[in-house]
Amino acid sequence: MQYRRLGNTGLKVSEISLGSWLTYGGYVEEQNAVSSIDLAYESGINFFDTANVYIRGEAEKVVGKALSKYPRSSYVLATKVFGQMGDGPNDQGLSRKHIIEQCDASLKRLGMDYIDIYYCHRYHPETPLHETLRALDDLVRQGKVLYVGVSEWTAEQITEAVHLADKKLLDRIVVNQPNYSMLQRYIEKEIIPVSEKHGIGQVVFSPLAQGVLTGKYKKGENVPEGSRAAQVNTNMSHILTEQNLDKVEQLRTVAYEEDLTLAQLAIAWILRQPNVASALVGASRPEQLQETIKASGVKLSSDTLEKINGILTN
User: Fold this and answer.
1) pTM of the complete model
2) Mean pLDDT for all residues in the chain
3) Annotated catalytic sites, by residue?
4) Which residues does residue 80 pair with via DSSP β-bridges, in sequence order?
C-alpha cells in the first residue's frame, strides 16, 4: 500500500480507503463488515470513512466497534455532518447547533475521543457560511476534530470558504470528497484547479461508478442478482447506459493488456491525478477488497492513458 499527503497537510493517507456508504450498519451482515475492515487494516489501508446519516448512525457504530481493537493513532477516520438525523427543524443542515450536537453524537457512536476528518456532507445555502466555519473551527480548537473537509461543494463554494476562513483566521478546509470516476469527470474542469491552488486534496467516492467499472454489467444482459442495480429503490439509469457499457467493454481490453482487472485499471486511472489523495471504495465482503487493494502503486504509461482517454471521450 502506498500513501499520499492529504492536500498541503502533513497527514498521510492510504491511496485506497474503505467507506461504509450503502454497506455497513444494515445492508451488510456485521461480520462481513468487520472482516472487510480487518482485511483493509491488515493490508495497509489506514483511512476509513463513514457518516452520521448512514443508517442514522448505525454505520458509525459498526466502524467504531471494528476499529476499536487497533491503536487509535494507527488509522485516520472520517465522518460527516449535514443529513437529516431526526424529525425536528434543526436535525439537519450546517447550523452551529446541528454541527456541535452531531459531532458529539458521532463521537459517542464511534466510541472515540476525536474525529480525524469531519466533512460538511453537502453545502447548506440556508446557513451563513461564517456560522458553519466558526463552529468547525471551535471543534478543531477543542480537539474533537483534527481536519475539516467538504463533500460535493462547487469550486465557487470552496473558494468562498477558503477566503472567509483566511479573513476570519479560522481553520481551513483541507479536503474535498467528490464523485469521480472514468464515467464521472466533472471535477477536472474547475474543482481540481481550485483545490490545487488552495492546497485541498481530493478523496473521491464511487471510483468504480457504483460497480459499473468492475465489468459486472453487460449490454443486452439482465443485471446480476444481488448487484447494486438489482436492489430495490436503486436507480442507476443515469450511469448504466449503452454508451457507458460500450466504453467498459473497450476498457476491459486495455486492462487485459496491462495485466490488470478492470477495477484495478479504474482505480489506477483515478490515482494518476496528483491532487487525488485517496480513492474511496466499498466492500460488502472481504474478497472484493483483495482485488482493488492491488491497484495501489500501479503506474499507467502515457500511451495507456492516451488510449483510455480516447475511449472515454468518444
Assistant:
1) 0.91
2) 91
3) 54
4) 119
